[in-house]
Amino acid sequence: MSTALTPEMHRRAAGRDLRVVFDEPTIALRVRELGREITAAYPDGDLLVLGLLKGSFIFLSDLVREINRPLHVDFLVASSYGAEKVSSGNVRLLYDPETPLEGKHILLVEDIIDSGRTMVRLTKLLRERQPASLAICALLDKHLLPEPLPEMRWTGFTAPPAFLVGYGLDHAEDHRHLPFIGDLI
Ligand code: IMP
Ligand code: MG
């Protein structure tokens, strides 16, 4: 599929060379499909779409516009486990959704599942809030977990073993604004 931007425009937006992995039309098509599937999957009940900041902000904003049913949007900010070497099973929320989660269908939206540790911890924490259901929609998944999480319901794309940026994903906070997903080269 052709890209909407030329390679020169990609370079200028990023400020450096990168290889386009998923271009804008490819992402838009997949997000539309996900929106259709999510619409069909929740026939009734309160749906709360919970975006994990910051990485999910662009994906979530496109995704909710493709979901054709009533829903609420909120966000989560989780503490980084950056320096930790082992999984503690705990994750601290720096921003907790204002809406109660009990009895609601929660759709957790994430940019990329890498080791899966973030999602393992978050799903554990969110389950304690007794939602009616809990499902994950991740734009990208590196499929590194030995077994997929039971909550993992929708994946946009399988991510190649590379460090990806753009469409919300960052490298040291750069490149989140790129409208495509690229690999820094
Ligand atoms: P996990 O806990 O190892 O699954 O890491 C997930 C988090 O790491 C994501 O929310 C991203 O913030 C970050 N991450 C992992 N891989 C990438 C990548 O290729 N590009 C940008 N961020 C990534
Ligand atoms: Mg992230």
Q: How would you describe what is shown here?
A:
This protein has a single domain (24-81, 89-160), classed as Rossmann fold (3-Layer(aba) Sandwich). Helices cover 24% and strands 28% of the residues. The chain has 4 helices and 9 strands; from the N terminus they run αβαβαβββαββββ. It has helices at residues 7-14, 24-41, 57-64, 117-127; strands at 18-22, 47-52, 72-78, 93-95, 105-113, 133-141, 152-158, 164-165, 181-184. Residues 83-87 have low confidence and may be disordered. Inosinic acid binds next to strand 5 and helix 4.
> Would you report the number of β strands?
9
Q: Which ligands accompany this protein?
A: inosinic acid, magnesium ion
Structural class: alpha/beta
Number of helices: 4
Supply the number of structural domains.
1
Return the average pLDDT rounded to an integer.
Answer: 90
CATH topology: Rossmann fold
CATH class value: Alpha Beta
Name the strands of the widest sheet in spatial order. 4-3-2-5-6-7
What letter string, H or E per element, gives the SSE order? Answer: HEHEHEEEHEEEE
Approximately what portion of the residues adopt beta-strand conformation? 25-35%
Report the uncertain regions. Answer: 83-87
**Which range best describes the helical content: under 10%, 10-25%, 25-40%, 40-55%, 55-70% or over 70%?**
10-25%
Q: What coarse outline follows from CA principal-axis ratios?
A: globular
Distance between the termini: 21 Å
- Radius of gyration from CA coordinates: 16 Å
